[in-house]
Each structure stands twice: as C-alpha cells, then as structure tokens.
Amino acid sequence: MKKITIIVLFYLFSSVTYALFEVQKIADNVYALVGELSQRSKTNLGNNSTHGVIITSAGVVLIDSGASYLGAKEIHKAIQKLTPMPVKIVINTGGQDHRWLGNDYFQKLGARIISSSKTKIDQQARADEQIARLNILIGDSLKGTKPVPALETFDKKMQVDFGGINLELYHFGAAHTVGDIVVWMPSTRTMFTGDMVFNNRMLGIGPAKDSQSWINAFEKMASFKPKHIIPGHGNASDLLFATHNTYDYLVFLKTKISKILENDGNMLDASKIDQSNFHYLKNYESIAGKNAQWVFEEMEFDD
C-alpha cells in the first residue's frame, strides 16, 4: 500500500488547478484534467470526471467533452491555459453523461466527434434519461446543453493520425457502459481509459451491469502495459494503482458473491459482504452495498 501512495503523490506533485480542474502533466503535451470525486453538482457543472488532453502541431485532441454545455466551456478554459491551439478532435470514451453531453459545444467550434458505434447507440438511447437526471442534480448549470451524439464511429478498432501523433482506439467490450473504449497513445505509453478505470473513488457497476465483461476488457487494456493511466475518475496513475482500485475490486466482488451463490445465499447476504479493504475510495459508504447487489443480480441470472 505504501508503494501505491507514493505513486499518487508523485502525480499530484506535478499538478496545478485551473477553473474546475486539477491539471496533471503526464508527458510533454499530454495532460489529465481531474474533476471532483463527489456527485455531479451545480458548481462542478456535472464534471465529476477526469478528461484527457493531447496537444499536437495541428490542434488539440480532447478525451471526453463533459456533462453539459457550460461544463464543456470550463474544459475549454482549462485547455486554453495550456495552449492557444483549437480543439480539433473530441473522443467520447463511453455513453455516460460527462463523456459526451459537451459535444455540442466543441462541434460548434469545428471539432470532429468520435466514439464506438455502441456508444453512439447508448448516447441516443439514454439522452433523455441523462438530461432529466442532470436537471435534478445540476439545475441551471444544464443551461444550453443539447445532446449531440458522436458523428464518427467504429466497431472494434480505429486509428487516428493527427498532428504528428498516432492514437489507437479500441472497444474491448462493455465496462461501465456498453460502448466503453480506451485510447492508446504508443509514443508516451499513455492509456486513456474513460470509465474502464476509477481511481480514488469507488466505481459503480452500472449502467452496463456486466462485471465479467468489464474484467475481460480491463485485462485486454492492461496487456498493453501502459506507463500512464488517465482514468475516467480520479488522478492519473500507473497500471498498478489502477488495477487495485478497479480490477481487484471487481474480482473481489465476483469471488465473494460466487461463494454466496454456491451456499444458496441471497441478496441480503451479498449486501453484508465486508468491503472494508476498499474503504479508502471516495463514495464507499453510498455505493459499496449497491455494487454487491448489482453483481449478485448479474451472477444469479447468469447462473
């Protein structure tokens, strides 16, 4: 545990705060914009999330556009502190609100919007639901937000060559959402994982509710042996820290619930699983029990 703590402090040491984000420099011209770890709110404009920024000779590539029009504007303000270059490409790593509801803002600036084909379907299917929920959570901060799904899509893999850099986009299967992708930058060995990785805060099993697919997708991502992970939530890290916060937690839940099912246990037994080894993660108290119940439902149905 000591080694993990040292890694996190190293990343925090090379950071500054702009607008609503802590900006962490990962490599030359590569940054993580780290939002709050708590719930979406009027003050964070729905951006309780982490976003990636790559500055190239031809413009900026942004990983995930934010949860609202005003949230996207704040992301843009943070980028403008780093470079005067325009945002030319936006990649949506999934169908969760803070991954794509800022698309309209950047599309109006001329940016290409890219996602997996399954993410686009997810965006279209859940747009009204997400807007309704955000209206409750962030209220007036949702002003001007218009759901605009990705315009360019791919099924399994896409290569983006832009401004002297090469990016590889992969859809390995459902993780937090059904269309989650990762963005691999070989030149810096940086993996932008979106909601496949939660650092510093506890993940939520939904909305895909397929923990085994999430585990499988994580393993495929980890096989690239990235030096840097820019997650969907929390601080940038190395693979070791990301594995403990996300992969190990998912495997832990599935192992515990498998034993409960073997002993003909029920949902109440699942809710009593001791998850205290992960108590250090933000939102542990509010989400741990729900996660156990969701995984139990999933495995009971599969069984």
Architecture overview:
39% of the residues lie in helices and 24% in strands. It has helices at 2-13, 69-82, 97-100, 103-108, 117-138, 211-222, 239-262, 267-271, 284-302, and strands at 15-18, 21-27, 30-34, 50-56, 59-63, 87-91, 112-116, 152-154, 157-162, 165-170, 182-185, 190-198, 228-233. Helix 6 packs antiparallel against helix 7 (239-262) and helix 7 (239-262) crosses helix 9. The longest helix is centred in the last third of the chain and has 24 residues, at 239-262. It starts with a helix and ends with a helix.
Question: What is the count of β-strands?
Answer: 13
Element string (H = helix, E = strand):
HEEEEEHEHHEHEEEEEHEHHH
Shape: globular
Kindly report the spatial arrangement of strands forming the biggest sheet. 1-2-3-4-5-6-7-8
Query: How much beta, percentage-wise?
Result: 15-25%
What is the arithmetic mean of pLDDT?
93
**How many alpha or pi helices?**
9
Q: Mind describing the biggest β-sheet?
A: 8 strands, mixed
